[in-house]
Amino acid sequence: MLRVGNLFRKISLRTKTEKSSKPLVWLHIGFGKTGTTALQKYFVARSKVDPHFFYPGLGRVESGAHHAAFPLFMQKKAMEAAPQILKQLRTRIFEQAPSTVTVLSSEHLCFFRPEQVAALAKVLEGCNVRILFFARPQCDLIESTFKWNIVENSNRHKTIAAFVENEVRAFDFMLRLKSWREHFDDSAISAHLYHRETCATDIVAATLKVLELEPVQIPKSRRVHRVSLGVQLTRVLAEYNELHSGPGKRKLFIDGLREIESLSDGETEALFVTPELRYAASNAEFGRLFLSRLESDLLSRKTCPASPSGLPI
Predict the structure, then answer these.
(1) What is the pTM of this model?
(2) How many domains does the chain have?
(3) I need a surface site. Which of 28, 143, 216, 286 has the fewest CB within 10 A?
(4) Residues 111, 215 share a domain
């Protein structure tokens, strides 16, 4: 099996592209909470100034992700519309110049069912397909996803314990990649750990290195650091959303919660601290197949403080 020794694999994509007429297509499949929004905003901006970079507007939602092209299985209406979108995307990909790099990005992709991955592989038949996947220590991902779940669907999981038990498979990276490995060779998968010591401080630069793209001049938007709300205050926010719909008042309320949160010690609840014990074997295999030694060591740490990657959740 392939072992990756370098932090960012040097795949000679341009050389391979020159020898082949197959369009080069990168599928950025997630995981969420690994700089995906920043990357998608960059992809949108770059597509406007780089004629050799294709990030289609078709199938893209307001955030910049291609969620309309890659809906989740339970999104019935979107699932009905997706095949036609994918058919049009295939046509547009093959219309691009041979030197063009196409990128399609959606966090939904790492949660695709086997039949969805199989259908997408068929759509992209004849393309040189590469998979870009960023992982993050599970303790970060579980807490972030749990808080999102509280806000979006507060009645689904009453307790943290119920959430962890119901969703434990969702955070297993080898399971997330299983269908992709079945339809694409392991050498087509470029997986990396999103961590302050690896790529999280500049996810765009790290991604350009993987894609073997030179930087281009793009106006930078102002980045704002926001204090992340803890679980209990996220519950409070969910209750507020049920009672108030005014966006102006909601913003003031959230700012107040952030101020309260910044005064707390930010301690993570016990069930978020040790989830890596559940994933030890899978993480070890994931590291052996796809990560550098540094990344694998960082992921294999058994203890996980409030924000082990040193980043807001």
Answers:
(1) 0.79
(2) 2
(3) 216
(4) yes
